[in-house]
Amino acid sequence: MKKLINLPQDAVREELEGIAAAHSDRVRVHADPSYIVRVDAPVRGKVAIVSGGGSGHEPMHGGFVGRGMLDAACPGEVFSSPTPDQMLAATQAVNGGSGVLYLVKNYTGDVMNFEMAAELARDEGVAVEMVVIDDDVGVRDSLHTAGRRGVGATVLAEKICGAAAELGRSLPEVAALCRTVNASARSMGVALTSGTVPMVGKPTFALGDDEIEIGVGIHGEPGRERAKAASAHDIVGVLAGAVLDDLPLSRGDRVLAFVNGMGATPLMELYVVYNELHKLLTDRAIGIARNLVGSYMTSLDMAGCSITLLRLDEELTALWDAPVLTTGLRWGA
Amino acid sequence: MKKLINLPQDAVREELEGIAAAHSDRVRVHADPSYIVRVDAPVRGKVAIVSGGGSGHEPMHGGFVGRGMLDAACPGEVFSSPTPDQMLAATQAVNGGSGVLYLVKNYTGDVMNFEMAAELARDEGVAVEMVVIDDDVGVRDSLHTAGRRGVGATVLAEKICGAAAELGRSLPEVAALCRTVNASARSMGVALTSGTVPMVGKPTFALGDDEIEIGVGIHGEPGRERAKAASAHDIVGVLAGAVLDDLPLSRGDRVLAFVNGMGATPLMELYVVYNELHKLLTDRAIGIARNLVGSYMTSLDMAGCSITLLRLDEELTALWDAPVLTTGLRWGA
Known about the structure:
Strand content of chain A: 15-25%
Radius of gyration of chain A: 19 Å
Helix content of chain A: 25-40%
CATH superfamily of the largest domain in chain A: Dihydroxyacetone kinase, domain 1
CATH topology of the largest domain in chain A: Rossmann fold
CATH architecture of the largest domain in chain A: 3-Layer(aba) Sandwich
Oligomer: homodimer
Number of domains of chain A: 2
Largest sheet of chain A: 6 strands, mixed
Distance between the termini of chain A: 42 Å
């Protein structure tokens, strides 16, 4: 294993120190228990949104803390759930009196710990709602997960719900919106290579020089099929096909098309993938009203990508376009 | 070779089609000869800035086309110089009557072709100045280069000169500023793995499982030393040490610290590197007034990073902070 780290057991802590050093104008990083909050937290009268999960998926979630997106993120160790005490401390740090939404990817440990934190927070009188994202059509009941896994739709839900919270919507409204985003989005990914967990020191799974894993999870969980390496055209056909099988879209529908890199895939290839996706959707008279191309939800140094489609309406589009000021996503005033 | 492409010889063309499909609100992509221009080009009365170089370094340069940065970028084939006819066509597309700056990385082919394009453009009555960036202290007189190579400072020069041009500065002023940025910045990189050029199909160079290439070029050119894999702490010591040997900084100086990923290195590791750099500079009482952490000048799927330091004064800081609206860098109004 060659990585730009020191001791594997220190990688997450040192990463967080780096984020603190680089972005102290934007976020505060708390240690023991560790969480990242926007520098102006708590924002009085605003619903706060807290997310979190194992490290190794950066910029998700810590890179999405800031005005217009998350109020706090709780980083676990690499590919390990954060603990309820991290979540509770983050909740206390961001609670502005209008309640807190936990936006959680569907992995058993994350869900269990966020549920426990929600109980603890409610005991303290904080109104907490929790929405679980499960957009990955790759497989059902995977390693670490009952039901479908939560992947790319998480980024979109964090952005859209963050905008709604910033506009002053209530906790039930923001939670309902989050469920709408989850219900309107599907994803599937592919791995060309495995990532390597620092503490393990070798690739999570083995792929031959001519093999790819279709439907892979963001922790290297097995997908639908170990297939022969194929063209971008064919891979996009499989990924987008699976997404469209599960998310009925009609001619004239408009979507947000998200091509996400897994960490070790250069932008050049993501644009080739986007080009194929654009042609496929255009052929079906599905309009791409918005897009996002880049590495936003990664899996350490895995090579590969995922495709997420989100059906848009006017409200979701306006919330997507609203200003956001994070290190990972940034636009608008 | 596993990549998310179709035929290797089509990768750059299809990437450009993807960029055109994704960002038609921001840029126009011209084919044959290929170049990318801001959607509102030419901007009357503004100095235009044109850059370019081989593909495979994305988001550089095409991702930096937009308000506050580049007016046009000319992409060559992977790791191959763009041609004078691309540069001339881009120049004609962006010339707003106040002259054009060619901002060129120091590679023999790029320099030669931009010089040829400058002559052709001047024959047509366009005022052209050219500034060559050569900030890489790794080696002198490398493969493809006489003198030092141009690397990370290019991103900073494009941003800072783009801001100056947007403010209405004259061509000689913007060119002088570009020379100041180049004179005030130094870089060095390290490779943990080689990238693979699609048309070649195998890694550009071979590195053992316990080897790294110190001072590597962005095309995989040899660096100073093939060394044993080392900790982030030690690697940063070597890279920043070489930069500081060449760029005299004193206690109390303020810099922009840029930690750049080479394409296959996840953000997690870049923040560990940034953390080490922050500690090293703090120990020397050099202040980091601004920073940039991410993969902005890549080398296909090479794993590794580079460090660039730019000595800042008030003017450079203000120009860095000025609004920029590109797909690769975006902030401000």
